[in-house]
Structures are given as structure tokens and as C-alpha cells.
From TrEMBL:
Organism of origin: Halosimplex carlsbadense 2-9-1
Protein's name according to its UniProt entry: Arylsulfatase
PANTHER family membership: SULFATASE, SULFATASE N-TERMINAL DOMAIN-CONTAINING PROTEIN
InterPro entries, per the entry: Alkaline_phosphatase_core_sf, GAG_Ulvan_Degrading_Sulfatases, Sulfatase_N
Transmembrane portions of the chain: none
Stretches assigned to coiled coil: none
Length: 517
């Protein structure tokens, strides 16, 4: 492990749905992130970080396990993490105090993503957050593990999500970010009073649809925009039931910028507090997004049905004594490598059943991504033979399963508008991609493959699939290798109705989360 290996505190922040190109710290021409710009003086700013999927559940499962989506199995078809030892479980077993604070419905005991956190709050709109926190989270888990009691738990989740949707659509869904920052401070103080090192994970949901930013931020970034009048339902646009003109896109993106600025404001408050209380220097601070957002590019709105770079090339900033503070335009990072980076910082080995620590995947190590130079840990699922041979050092991979959790709403909007969706379209397609900093190859299940030269075509407009570009050919070859190592055959998923192959329990959970009827 690194020269500064543990123990050491960890603050891990995920800005949900935050697109890299809308952050002033990444060169955006609106001042959305002045506090992150200050943070950049202490951190390495990675420009080539890649998420393993374009939505919350599989990305967080990868962050918590170090595995690709097909390996950990928390995907569209199976919307919860099962049989995995999480990062929080490993740190907790090593004596860390652990906490998770989020208002994202996917990051709860319900999906098992909260496993290992001593304290957690999901900040549901109506259901008291404390109901699923601390010791009561164990009761919640017991309820979910019992067929009879789980029906009670299911109704509570349904109540929370229904209430959140109602208030959000009416413009009344207030952000929980201020409360989350306050809870982090309380948790840190309580942990240190008990003599414990701490790991605090937060997910901040402001920039996720729908956008209803606080007034002071809306006045700066979206003056005069009525957030209840613009299109806040991506399925209406994606289905063809609703059009959005340039002026409305400008209003939508203004609201989005205001939400990002609100996140930045409270991150600044948290960072200042850590500095003022002399906790800053010995704390690993990670700030990233789990995925981005599309605003009409490629005919899409939101973060479904595509794996283009605005969705998967995410912001990532890391502060640590072993990581030089600079802007890194060359190193491609896979987000699941942050799992190994945290273990390295803490000096903690993975718990039983967890993905073993891989030095080649730690950002703290001088041999980061030089897989052939670092012995593969025994039992590592994410270390392939092609890694050991040095063939995949420069590649990242995206693995997007069939989007069953989004199709219910999309089909509903299309049906209401009298639109028939083509089942041989991207809406029903599984997708994978191999990516390096200069090229990308996208494998689509039901539509033609795509390929782009990211160095000369960063907007992914000129499709080069089927051509003779050497970068594209090499990237497609790496993707083929990834697919063969993963042993994930799309032929195993062939049913025309994407729900037919799902088990009843998975359908029940998706129904309770409001994604299918």
C-alpha cells in the first residue's frame, strides 16, 4: 500500500447527475463551482474519469465493491446488490466509524447499498430519515429478509417515493444538501469523541431531475425561469411526446447550473469547516459524479438510453498527500478504482468475500494502471488476464444493461401521445463501450455499433464504426477482450419483452420504487 497508508479519515462525495462540462472548475464559462475551484488548489483534477454505467445503482455498487456491473449484478434487471462485501463493511470491520447520507432512493438498506454503514440517512421527503438510520437500519434489513415483513417495508418505500415525486413535480421538493452537510459534521465530531477514524459517504441529489433550485441560486443562473413551466420529465421528450426548443433548453440548463452552484456552496461550507477544525490535512477527500446528463444531444434528455461521454466521462477530484495537486488530462481513471484508493489510504484489506486490494488500481500508487508491473491479488475478479499482460492499461469499460427501469415511464408517455416505440431501438438496447482518451467504441445490442475519435470529435458526432481508423480498431479489440473476459453474452438476454425474464421479487421492488406498474 502507499507510503502514507492508514489509518486516515475519508470524505467521499458523489454529486449525483453532475456533468463535467457544466463545472467552472472544468472550464465552464459560468461560475457554477467557485469552491471546487479553490479545492482544486489542493487536489488532482482528473479530466478522463469514466463511470462504469450511466445511472446511479450500478455505479454506486461498483464504487462500493470495485467490480464492473456484470460482476456485482446490481443492474437494470436485478435492482439491488446481493452477495457482495462492500467498502463500508471492510472499513467498519477494521474499526472505522462509517456513515452514508443521501436523498437518492437507490442508496438505502432497501437495495443493500447501505450495508456496512453504522449510521445512514436517506432523507426521504415524508418518511423520517431516522427510521432507516443507525440501529434501526438493522431492523429494516431484517424486514427485507423476511417475506412477510418485507411487504411492510415495501409500503414505506412506496410512500416515501410517491411523496417525493408529488412535491418535486409541484416545485416544492426542497434540497436536503444543507442537512446532509450538517449530519456529516455531527458524525465526524461523534466519531472522534469515540476515538474512531471515520468514513463518510454522501450523495447530493440537487442536480438530478426535477430542477427546483433555491431562489438565490435560481436568480443568478436562471433569472425569471419558472421551474414548473419547463419540461422536467425526460421521458416526455425521449418518447417524442414533447418537443423542447432552444430557449427552453437554455432555461432548463440554467436551472441545472443553479442546482450545481447550490451543491458547490455547501461543499465549500463543509471544506471550510474541515480546514478550520484542523481535520483537512489527514483526510482523503474524493469528489466525483456518478454520471452526467444529456440536454438534447443525440436526441436524448436525461441519462438513459445512451453511454455518450457527457454521461460517462465524469468529474473527479482527489485530495491526498500522495496525489499531486494538478490538472490531469492524460490519466484515464475507472471510477471503481476509487474502492482500491480508499482501502490504500486506510491501510485496510478487503473483508471476507470482498474484492481484494489491487495496487495497480489505487490512485495513490506510482504504478497506477500498470497492471503488468503489479502482481494480481489472489481472487481478484476485476483483474483480467489481459490486464496482467499489459493489454488494457489504457482502457476503461462501460457496461449498461437493458434499461427496464426506465421503459415503463417511457412507454407510458409514448402511449398517451399515440406513439409506437420501435423495439429495435436504443430504448430497448443493452450497451457496452471500450474507451481510451482518444477513441471510443460502443457496442449496441439492437442498433448499429458506434465509434468516435474523442481527440478530434469530442462531441461524438462523426460515427467511424466499420471504418479503418487504427485507434477505433484497437478500442474495439479491447472491448472484445473485455467481453470475452467477462463471459457476458448478449444472447442470454433475447426476450422481446424486457420484463418477461425478471423474477417476481425484482418486479415487486421496481414497482415499489415507481418504475413499473
Amino acid at each position: 500500500m502507499s507510503e502514507t497508508d492508514g489509518p486516515g479519515n475519508v470524505l467521499f462525495v458523489v454529486m449525483d447527475t453532475v456533468r463535467q462540462s457544466h463545472l467552472s472548475v472544468y472550464g465552464y464559462d459560468r461560475p457554477t463551482t467557485p469552491n471546487l475551484e479553490d479545492f482544486a488548489d489542493d487536489a488532482r483534477v482528473f479530466e478522463e474519469a469514466v463511470a462504469p454505467a450511466p445511472w446511479t445503482l450500478p455505479v454506486h455498487a461498483s464504487l462500493f465493491t470495485g467490480l464492473y456491473p456484470t460482476q456485482h449484478g446490481a443492474t437494470q434487471e436485478n435492482p439491488y446488490l446481493e452477495g457482495a462485501t462492500t467498502l463500508a463493511e471492510s472499513l467498519s470491520a477494521a474499526g472505522y466509524a462509517t456513515a452514508c447520507y443521501s436523498s437518492n432512493a437507490w442508496i438505502t438498506p432497501y437495495t443493500n447499498l447501505a450495508d456496512g454503514f453504522d449510521d445512514q440517512d436517506n432523507f426521504f421527503q415524508v418518511m423520517p430519515g431516522d427510521l432507516l438510520s443507525g440501529p434501526l437500519s438493522k431492523i429494516w434489513k431484517t424486514m427485507n429478509d423476511n417475506d412477510t415483513l418485507r411487504s411492510v417495508a415495501d409500503r414505506l418505500v412506496e410512500l416515501g417515493n410517491t411523496a417525493h415525486e408529488y412535491f418535486a413535480e409541484s416545485g416544492g421538493g426542497d434540497t436536503k444538501t444543507p442537512e446532509i452537510v450538517d449530519r456529516v459534521q455531527e458524525f465526524v465530531e461523534d466519531s472522534e469523541e469515540n476515538g474512531d477514524e471515520w468514513f463518510s459517504f454522501v450523495n447530493l441529489m440537487d442536480a438530478h431531475l426535477p430542477y427546483h433550485p433555491p431562489e438565490e441560486f435560481a436568480d443568478e443562473f436562471a433569472p425569471g425561469v419558472d421551474s414548473t413551466a419547463v419540461c422536467q420529465n425526460s421521458k416526455e421528450y425521449n418518447s417524442g411526446a414533447r418537443d423542447i426548443d432552444d430557449d427552453e433548453w437554455e432555461d432548463i440548463e440554467g436551472l441545472y447550473d443553479a442546482e450545481i452552484a447550490h451543491i458547490d456552496h455547501h461543499l465549500g461550507r463543509l471544506f471550510d469547516w474541515l480546514r478550520e477544525t484542523d481535520r483537512w490535512e489527514d483526510t482523503l477527500v474524493v469528489v466525483c459524479a456518478d454520471h452526467g446528463e444529456l440536454f438534447g444531444e443525440h436526441g436524448l434528455y436525461g441519462h438513459e438510453f445512451g453511454i455518450y461521454d457527457p454521461l460517462v466521462n465524469v468529474p473527479l477530484m482527489v485530495k491526498h498527500p500522495d496525489v499531486e495537486a494538478e490538472r490531469d488530462t492524460e490519466t484515464q481513471v475507472e471510477l471503481q478504482d476509487l474502492y482500491h484508493t480508499v482501502l490504500d489510504h486506510a491501510g485496510v484489506e478487503a473483508g471476507a468475500g470482498g474484492e481484494p486490494f489491487d495496487r495497480a488500481r489505487s490512485l495513490l500508487d506510482a504504478d497506477y494502471r500498470e497492471f503488468a508491473s503489479v502482481d494480481a491479488p489472489r481472487g481478484a475478479e476485476s483483474r483480467f488476464s489481459a490486464h496482467d499482460e499489459g493489454e488494457l492499461d489504457d482502457y476503461a469499460f462501460v457496461d449498461y444493461h437493458r434499461p427496464v427501469v426506465e421503459l415503463n415511464q417511457l412507454e407510458s408517455k409514448a402511449s398517451a401521445a399515440g406513439i409506437d416505440l420501435d423495439q429495435d431501438s436504443r430504448f430497448y438496447s443493452r450497451m457496452r463501450a471500450g474507451r481510451r482518451t482518444d477513441g471510443k467504441y460502443i457496442r449496441n445490442e439492437r442498433i448499429a455499433d458506434e465509434a468516435y475519435r474523442l481527440d478530434t470529435d469530442p462531441d461524438e458526432l462523426a460515427d467511424l464504426a466499420g471504418g479503418d481508423d487504427e485507434v477505433i480498431a484497437a478500442t474495439e479489440g479491447a472491448l472484445v477482450t473485455f467481453e470475452s473476459e467477462m463471459d457476458g453474452e448478449w444472447a442470454d438476454v433475447t426476450d422481446e419483452d424486457v420484463l418477461d425474464d425478471m423474477g417476481d421479487e425484482a418486479k415487486d421492488r421496481l414497482s415499489d420504487l415507481g418504475y413499473i406498474e
